[in-house]
Design brief:
Strands 1-2 form a two-stranded antiparallel ribbon. Helix 3 packs across helix 7 and helix 8 packs antiparallel against helix 9. Helices cover about 45% and strands about 10% of the residues. The protein starts with a helix and ends in a 5-residue tail after the last helix.
């Protein structure tokens, strides 16, 4: 019900198509909306895009983020928006991850966690944002290589602008970097690549600890964390 209210409030402010959700009180309670045309965007799909398509996607995401972040917070607060949750990166929580990480990365991981904990408030403040822009929440037209819409606003809320690019990095660090540049060009707000790297590292390590606890998708999430820590594209 909260997601439907948020979508109704933000839809007039964004160019990208988003779901038009209707709530039926039932019983049973359920929601309904028309599907956005397209399919999800996997990392392997992004790798096949040419430079023109990659630049267009990055700019579409940047425009979407810029438009969301410009919405008066009181509008979204009235619709039920809340602060976004944060990842658990405490020592005890992360203790199970160490045996699964390559030994040569332990120093890198320790440094990243320490630097993450030392991050101060985002210099760009806080905004209403999506904060879940990975490829599984995108309706992408693979024939025309363009974004047709964005869905799943359950995790949207108030948070720092830098965090918007963390989930984008799950598609590819190249897309995160391109969309950050496009966002700066559109909004006039400069982003700190190191801050985004540390936020993403915290997310991936926290999710790895959670996966170990549940026993679900551990190899995949471990590989995502290791790949992120080893790459240098966004730093």
């Amino acid at each position: 019900m909260r997601e439907a209210r948020l979508l109704a409030a933000l839809r007039p402010f964004v160019t990208a198509p988003v779901p038009d959700m209707t709530i039926h009180s039932g019983p049973p309670l359920f929601s309904m909306h028309g599907k956005l045309p397209g399919r999800t965007l996997e990392p392997a799909d992004y790798a096949k895009l040419d430079d023109t398509a990659r630049a267009r996607l990055a700019d579409d995401l940047a425009r979407f983020f810029t438009e969301l972040h410009a919405i008066d917070p009181s509008v979204m607060l009235a619709a039920g928006a809340e602060p976004v949750g944060w990842w658990d990166t405490q020592k005890d929580t992360l203790a199970p991850i160490w045996p699964l990480l390559p030994t040569e990365l332990h120093g890198e991981v320790e440094a990243a966690i320490k630097a993450y904990h030392e991050l101060g408030p985002d210099p760009l403040g806080e905004v209403y944002g999506f904060f879940d822009a990975h490829g599984w929440n995108m309706a992408f037209d693979h024939d025309r290589s363009q974004l047709n819409g964005i869905f799943d606003f359950a995790d949207s809320g108030f948070g720092p602008p830098h965090r918007e690019f963390v989930q984008v990095s799950l598609i590819d660090p190249d897309l995160a970097l391109r969309s950050m540049r496009a966002y700066a060009a559109r909004s006039g707000k400069m982003l700190d690549r190191r801050r985004v790297f540390l936020l993403a590292a915290a997310m991936r390590l926290s999710e790895l600890a959670g996966a170990i606890e549940t026993g679900e998708d551990v190899p995949m999430i471990r590989d995502l964390a290791v790949a992120w820590l080893r790459q240098r594209a966004i730093r």
